[in-house]
Amino acid sequence: MLKITSISLTTLLTSFGLFLPVKAENLAHLTQLLSTKQCQLCDLTGSGLVMANLSGASLIGANLAGANLSQANLAGADLRGANLSGASLYGANLTGANLSSAIINGTDLREAYLTNANLTGTSLQQAYVQGAKGISQNAGTPELFYGWGLIETKEGNYREAIDHHNKALILNPEFAPAYLARGYALLRLGNEQGAMLNAKMASQLYEKEENGQGQELADSFVHNIEAMQEARRKGRGNPGLDNVVRGVASLALQFLLKGGI
User: Fold this and answer.
1) What pTM, to 2 d.p., does this model score?
2) Which domains are delineated in the chain?
3) Are 144 and 125 in contact (CB under 8 A)?
4) Helix 176-188 and helix 142-154: axis angle, to 10°?
5) Fewer beta carbons below 10 Å: N end or C end of the chain?
6) Rounded distance, CA 182 to CA 234, Å?
């Protein structure tokens, strides 16, 4: 039996002139955008707009799927209903931009500036937002902010993690995992008292939920820090913060990373 590989099939189609051309960016629309900053409903798929100055641009309903807008200035831009699927907005300035009902699936928003951006009706669930700054607490659910916090924690970005967990807890003050995760991040920043207070709150909520494993981990987290502080007070040496983190605190984090709630 003849086995047709992807390479042989490509060669065959090319030989007979049947190979479909790859769609290129719409140069007319791209030129219009760069010259006027007015390009509503434009086809800008795959366009290269790295570091472009598009502040205040009107891109209502524009198709920017796969476009490269890394570090572009989109401050105050109107992107209502725009398709940003797969687009790169890494480090882009979206301060005050209107992203209402925009499609953001697989969009790279890492390190982007989103202060005062309108995200009404826009889901960031499928976007990459690590390091993004200024995400409104109304832009996600408690679970979403908590998940982003865990991602930042894994990368060692503890302050950013705490910011996400803060927003999760504003939305749901009884979200036990966010307290425990925030406690871990605080501990890594050297705030032992803050870490214990958060772990104690997590323990109380886990008990209320009858989540025995979560409660046990939270209690052990607290007891280990207390034991370390007691040894320090009695002059028996400091076992070191890293030992605590590698121990029960690390187990608590693994519990959370594995979906423990």
Assistant:
1) 0.77
2) 35-140 (2.160.20.80), 142-257 (1.25.40.10)
3) yes
4) 30
5) N
6) 29
